[in-house]
Amino acid sequence: MDQLKTHWASVSTLISDRKKELDTELKRQEENDKLRQRFAEVANEFHGWLESVRTGLMEDSKSENLSLLDQRTNIERTLEKIEQHRPRLASIEELATKLSQRVILENKYTDHTMVALSQTFDQLRTVAARLHTAVQKQIEAVNATGVSEESLKEFNMMFKHKDKDQSGFLEPEELRSCLQAIGVLLPSDDQGDTHDSQFRAILASMDPNGDGRIGLTEFLTYMIQLNSDNVKSRSDIEEAFAALTRNGTQPYITKNELLRALTPEQAAYCMKNMPPYVDKNGHPVADAYDYQSYTANTFMP
Predict the structure, then answer these.
(1) Nearest-angstrom CA–CA distance, 258 and 274
(2) Most distant CA pair in the chain, distance
(3) Residues in CB range of 37: below 8 A, 6 or more apart
(4) Which residues pair with 288 in a beta bridge?
(5) N vs C: which end of the chain shows fewer Cβ within 10 Å?
(6) Domains of the chain
(7) Could you tell me if 224 and 147 are in contact, meaning their C-beta atoms sit under 8 angstroms apart?
(8) What are 169's strand-pairing partners?
(9) Are 275 and 290 in contact (CB under 8 A)?
(10) Is 67 helix (H, G, I), strand (E, B) or coil?
């Protein structure tokens, strides 16, 4: 009986100690789970905010209703907002550190990690900064050259239209199609060959690092330079169009004259952007376009 009593007391003590251990572990696991939930809550919320800011930036860059100055203002406000939310990232990092100290490696409440959130935050700021640089260059081009804001919008829209995979870059085939659609004179090629010497020279000037991909900033820089070099004055453009008309001085240019002198893409671009011609009596001329009004609205004197 003495031995049984001794064993009984020993087992009772073991049970009591084990219960304390289990209670302690349960409390630790409950605290860990609360920490997981807290991290997931702020991480999910922060990731949602990052995505909403990115979406806003992309929508503004595609908007046809915002002027370049408005775009620049919105981007600058976004950059300020991003910096103002940096402390949120720091607070999330504190929670991540606590998780790491507790050796909590998995979190069933979220798919987001501290590393991924930091990378997304930095990428967002980089995207905003690049957009700001691109818009600023466009504003400077409008102020310093004959390239109108409408032309720059047209370049932007065409770039994004030809960027089929939405990668933010144009491959050589996409670039050639984009240039032709805008009106850059290139040798016609039904097979879409990208290896003729003229196109290779253009590609080399736009792609100095030779990676074969053209970003929006590189594309706009080339188009601004091209228009700045080629467009000396509004009269130069008017004279060029006038030279294509029947008698060389006609105040309008016809559809057939455009198609005869330009590539199909260039002619289509002119017919899309030039207003129909109306004579002094208010009568429209069939298949005629007012190149004088077009140049007056597009280029500086």
Answers:
(1) 11
(2) 130
(3) 109
(4) 254
(5) N
(6) 1-144 (1.20.58.60), 146-229 (1.10.238.10), 232-298 (1.10.238.10)
(7) yes
(8) 215
(9) yes
(10) coil
Angle (CA) 231 232 237, round 5°: 60
For 227, the token pair is 């228009």
Run of H or E including 285? strand 284-289
| Contact of 284 with 277, CB cutoff 8 Å | yes
Q: Is the pTM of this model over 0.90?
A: no
Which residue has 């595609």 as its token pair?
A: 62
What value, to the nearest 5°, has the Cα angle with vertex 186 and ends 161 and 183?
50
- The predicted-structure confidence for 64-121, as pLDDT tens digits, reads as follows 778 888 889 999 999 999 999 999 999 999 999 999 999 998 999 999 999 999 999 9
Q: Which two tokens stand for residue 301?
A: 């004197």
Q: Report the 10 Å Cβ neighbour count for 207.
A: 18
Task: Using only the alpha carbons of the chain, give its radius of gyration.
Answer: 32
pLDDT digits (tens, 9 = 90+) for 124-134: 999 999 888 88
Q: How many residues does the structure list for the chain? A: 301
Q: Locate 225 and state its tokens.
A: 């330079």
What is the SS3 assignment for 169? strand
> In terms of Cα–Cα distance, which of 131, 144, 93 is closest to 114?
93
In DSSP notation, 121-165 reads: HHHHHHHHHHHHHHHHHHHHHHHHSS--HHHHHHHHHHHHHH-TT
Please state, in angstroms and rounded to a whole number, the distance separating the CA atoms of residues 32 and 36.
6
Identify the pLDDT of residue 281: 87
Give phi and psi for 193, each to the nearest 5. -65, 130
Integer Cα distance of 39 and 101 in angstroms: 14
